[in-house]
Design goal:
Blueprint (H helix, E strand, L loop, with lengths): L2 H10 L5 H22 L4 H32 L4 E6 L3 E7 L13 H10 L4 E3 L5 E3 L2 E6 L5 E6 L13 H12 L14 E6 L2 E5 L7 H4 L7 H4 L22 E8 L7 E7 L12 E7 L2 H9 L5 E2 L9 H6 E16 L9 H9 L3 H5 L6 E2 L21 H10 L3 E3 L2 E4 L2 E2 L1 E7 L2 H16 L4 E7 L8 H6 L6 E7 L7 H4 L17 H10 L5 H18 L2 E14 L27 E6 L3
Parallel strand pairs: 2-11, 18-19, 18-20
Antiparallel strand pairs: 1-22, 3-4, 5-6, 6-8, 7-8, 9-10, 10-11, 12-21, 13-20, 13-21, 14-21, 15-16, 16-17
Helix pairs in contact: 10-12, 16-17
Length: 596
């Protein structure tokens, strides 16, 4: 048997007495109590004192931490600042359609926005509306002001890494000058151009033309990609769907969101080869919508970061709580254009009476969007003196109509058994429709003139405002917005040579003295001389009244409260010039220490 078994046998043979066991337990209990009194109970008071001291120190340390944290929070603004940083993605909502990314064919809001993001020109406009160099480094002009030599910046590159050179500029100009190209940019047929060296282009004008620098804002195309493409085939070339670019962003992808292509998303990435430096934004998306209602929905769902297509005051509180907006003046003027060759409006007294009956300042108050006062054919910021508003007197207007034989018969103005009836046309737009209805109301109620209003949807191909209204001058009064550009030259809109079916003088305005002033104004580089000529033209225009100047346009750029986008005080030549400082836009914030 093992030793373990022997030990157990001995244990089982032991005799235990309960009395003995009880004694031993009592002895053990007394010893334990003495030990507890000596080492535990007798020291409880001392432990309580220590605990109070420790608690006091803990409270003091916590108080010091709290005071320090409060002091840091109160004074951190003195040495720290919140700033916008690089990275992130921005999504802009615009109205379509978006059929091409080739910038020389851009004509819709979406296409023009894409062109500005993706392509650079020789010159561009800054956030004050002034012209400044883009791809160009310098420009020299000869004494006769007929030759311009433009030198490009060094080390310009396309998004694919190839160099941008004078050959690209000349290649683009040849396309613009060709009637086969059918580009949306015109006016280059009469100008000669040639490549001097790799970075220099020479322009030769038939006569001096003061606004020529503004013509150099055209987008430059890459010769190495499009070399050999016939001008007539360029519109359908794959380049229009996947371009090589020179602007702040490079093409990544174009997505059709809907089956009919009415909603698309253009995805771009920061162009590391951009001469102006890599943008802060890592990605930029252009969301293209078929209607303003679709853009409103996208704001509610925060699908987009910003948009220039809506009137902020018309938006819901839900949107206003999330998005901010600032009004920005653009160089567009809205007019009630009189067709001076129509049956009734070829009469200057009738035009004068119509204008006298309208209080333009009160008319502007009807609009939901902010506007800038404008009283003539040239924007106020281009003239030395602000143009004064025309007179307003319904009484005088009635007297003029009576004097030229338009008498009220049966509640309507009549002459030689003919009723004075005006056909008023306006593009489908909230503001334009309000203006058309109010003008019709004034002329009916105050002057007893019969009116008929026609609203044309510019997005409806079947209605074609160009073919059905503008080219045939099929209107008596047209509510229309004219893009005035970055220069006071308004030759295209008011010179008699442009009063043709293909011209932009929609009023068919014809005055030889006004023509001379316009021609002279665009031929002088001297600002003083130009202002003198345009001031004279404005005076003649106001006497002839080929239109009523209603207002200068302002756009709302609506954007999320949390982002940095267009500068609040920016004044733009056109809505797409909002991207002129897009390299500084940002969606990310961080705190950094202030530098001394």
């Amino acid at each position: 048997m093992s030793s373990g078994g022997s030990s157990w046998n001995r244990f089982t043979r032991l005799k235990f007495s309960s009395k003995v066991v009880n004694k031993r337990l009592q002895k053990l209990e007394r010893g334990s109590l003495r030990h507890a009194r000596k080492f535990v109970t007798s020291r409880l008071d001392r432990l309580s004192s220590v605990r109070r001291n420790v608690s006091g120190w803990i409270i003091l340390v916590m108080l010091m931490i709290g005071v320090s944290a409060a002091q840091w929070a109160a004074s951190k603004d003195a040495y720290m600042i919140t700033t916008y940083t690089s990275g992130g993605s921005y999504s802009d909502g615009v109205l379509g359609p978006l059929e091409t990314l080739n910038p020389i064919f851009a004509k819709t809001s979406a296409e023009r926005s894409a062109a500005k993001l993706l392509f650079a020109g020789l010159y561009k406009y800054d956030t004050t509306g002034n012209i400044k160099s883009d791809l160009a480094e310098s420009m020299t002009v000869n004494q006769k002001e007929t030759e311009y030599i433009v030198k490009l910046r060094k080390d310009l590159r396309w998004s694919d890494g190839k160099n941008i050179t004078a050959a690209d500029v000349v290649f683009t100009l040849k396309l613009l000058a060709s009637s086969e190209t059918r580009a949306e940019i015109s006016g280059w047929q009469s100008i000669k151009f040639e490549k001097i060296d790799e970075l220099t282009v020479k322009f030769i004008l038939p006569s001096s033309y003061a606004p020529f620098a503004h013509a150099l804002t055209f987008p430059v195309l890459p010769e190495h990609v499009l070399r050999g493409v016939r001008p007539s085939e360029l519109r359908e070339h794959p380049f229009g769907k996947s371009p090589v670019t020179s602007g702040p962003f490079a093409f990544r992808m174009l997505q059709n969101v809907t089956s009919d292509g009415s909603k698309k998303i253009l995805y771009t990435v920061a162009n590391d080869n951009y001469y102006g430096g890599t943008p802060k934004l890592e990605r930029f998306q252009l969301y293209v919508y078929p209607s303003q209602n679709d853009i409103v929905k996208s704001l509610r769902t925060r699908e987009i970061t910003g948009t220039p297509e809506l009137v902020y005051n018309n938006q819901s509180d839900e949107i206003k709580n999330t998005y901010s907006s600032e009004p920005h003046t653009i160089n567009n003027g809205v007019y009630a254009l009189f067709n001076s060759t129509s049956q009734y409006l070829q009469s200057k007294p009738v035009r004068q009476a119509l204008a006298l009956s309208v209080n333009v300042s009160e008319l502007r108050k009807l609009l939901s969007s902010e506007t800038e006062e404008m009283n003539g054919p040239v924007l106020n910021n281009f003239l030395d003196e602000k143009v004064k508003p025309k007179g307003y007197s319904v009484k005088k207007a009635k007297g003029i109509l009576d004097a030229v034989g338009w008498k009220v018969v049966g509640g309507v103005r009549q002459k030689d058994n003919q009723k004075l009836t005006l056909n008023i046309v306006a593009p489908k737009n909230e503001n334009y429709e309000k203006l058309a209805k109010k003008l019709a109301e004034i002329w009916q109620k105050e002057l007893n003139i019969a009116t008929d209003i026609k609203i044309v949807d510019v997005n409806d191909v079947s209605q074609s405002i160009l073919q059905n209204v503008l080219l045939p001058r099929n209107f008596d009064v047209l509510i229309y917005e004219l893009a005035m550009g970055g220069d006071p030259d308004v030759y295209a809109y008011w010179h008699s040579s442009q009063a043709t079916s293909g011209g932009l003088n929609f009023s068919n305005y014809n005055n030889a003295v006004a023509d001379d002033a316009l021609a002279s104004g665009r031929s002088k580089l001297s600002k003083r001389q130009r202002m003198d000529r345009y001031g004279k033209f404005t005076s003649i225009w106001q006497q002839d009244i080929p239109a009523i100047a209603l207002y200068q346009t302002k756009i709302n750029y609506i954007h999320l409260n949390s982002v940095k986008a267009l500068a609040e005080d920016a004044s733009l030549v056109s809505a797409v010039d909002r991207y002129t400082d897009v390299t500084y836009w940002s969606v990310n914030k961080t705190q950094v220490y202030k530098t001394p």
